[in-house]
Specification:
Strand 3, helix 5 and strand 4 form a beta-alpha-beta unit. The protein has a seven-stranded parallel β-sheet, sandwiched between helices. The longest helix is centred in the middle third of the chain and has 13 residues. Helices cover 37% and strands 14% of the residues. The protein is built from ten helices and seven strands. It is an alpha/beta fold.
Length: 240
C-alpha cells in the first residue's frame, strides 16, 4: 500500500490502522489520542514503553492533508521510525546531522514536493534557519507538531534538554497546527511543565495504565547470590 499526500484525506483511523499497519484494534488510549489530534485538540499522553505511542501521530498524519513534524531527541529512533514507515509504504524523512548535504537536499526536495507525510527533526535542528525556511515554505501546510520524549522539556524531567524550550516559539508560528506531546514517564510536576512550556491550549491529558501483564516482579532475600542467579537461569533455559 502506498500512501500519497491526498489519498488518505477522509479515511477513518480504523481504516488506516487496518489497511496500512495491519492491526484490527487499538491499544488502550490510542483511539482517544488519535481522535483528539484529528479534531485539533492539543494533547499530552503518557503511555508506557511499547504502548504504541508512534501510531497516535502516524495515523493522523495519514489522514491530514498536510505535514506532521515530529521532534525527537534520538537520531537512532528517527532512523528506525522512517525505516518502519517506509516498509509500510509511507513517505517520511528525517533531517538531522547524520545526513550528507546531498542527502539532506534530496529529503528537503521530497518534503517540498508534497509527497512526505511526516518529517522528523531534532530539537536542536528545529530552530535552525534552514528548517525554519523549509517549514515556512508557502507550499507546505503544517498540520501537527508532535513532541516525542516530551519529559525532556521539563526541568523536573530526568533528561532535561534546553533546546526543547525553543519548541513553543516555533509552534506559535503555526497556530493552526495541533500539538501532541508524548512520553513514557511524567510526574505531576513534569506534566504541568510540559503543558506550560509548550503553551498547550486547553489540552487533554491522558495517562495510560502502566500495568504490564507480561511482566512479573518478585523480590527475594539475597542469600548466596551467585547460587541464586545460577539456579534462576537454569529454571529459564529456553526463555528470553
Amino acid at each position: 500500500v502506498h500512501i500519497s499526500c491526498h489519498a488518505c484525506t477522509g479515511l477513518s483511523p480504523e481504516t488506516v490502522l487496518k489497511s496500512v499497519f495491519g492491526y484490527s484494534s487499538f491499544r488502550p488510549l490510542q483511539k482517544e489520542i488519535i481522535q483528539n489530534v484529528c479534531s485539533g485538540r492539543d494533547t499530552l499522553a503518557i503511555m508506557p514503553t511499547g504502548g504504541g505511542k508512534s501510531l497516535t501521530y502516524q495515523i493522523p498524519a495519514l489522514i491530514f492533508d498536510g505535514l506532521t513534524v515530529v521532534v525527537s531527541p534520538l537520531i537512532a529512533l528517527m532512523h528506525d521510525q522512517v525505516s518502519s514507515l517506509a516498509s509500510n509504504g509511507i513517505e517520511a524523512v528525517f533531517l538531522n546531522s547524520s545526513l550528507e548535504w546531498e542527502e539532506y537536499k534530496s529529503c528537503v526536495a521530497r518534503v517540498l514536493s508534497g509527497k512526505v507525510k511526516i518529517v522528523y527533526v531534532s530539537p536542536e535542528g528545529l530552530a535552525t534557519q534552514k528548517i525554519q525556511t523549509l517549514l515556512h515554505n508557502e507550499n507546505l501546510h503544517i498540520k501537527c507538531f508532535t513532541i516525542d520524549e516530551a519529559h525532556c522539556i521539563s526541568e523536573w524531567g530526568h533528561d532535561f534538554r534546553p533546546d526543547y524550550l525553543a519548541i513553543a516559539s516555533v509552534r506559535r508560528q503555526f497556530p493552526q497546527a495541533v500539538c501532541l506531546a508524548l512520553t513514557a514517564t511524567a510526574t505531576k510536576h513534569v506534566r504541568d511543565d510540559i503543558v506550560n512550556n509548550l503553551q498547550m491550549k486547553n489540552p487533554d491529558i491522558l495517562l495510560a495504565s502502566f500495568n504490564r501483564p507480561n511482566i512479573f516482579l518478585e523480590v527475594r532475600p539475597k542469600r548466596d547470590s551467585y547460587v541464586q542467579i545460577v539456579s534462576f537461569l537454569k529454571e529459564h533455559l529456553e526463555d528470553s
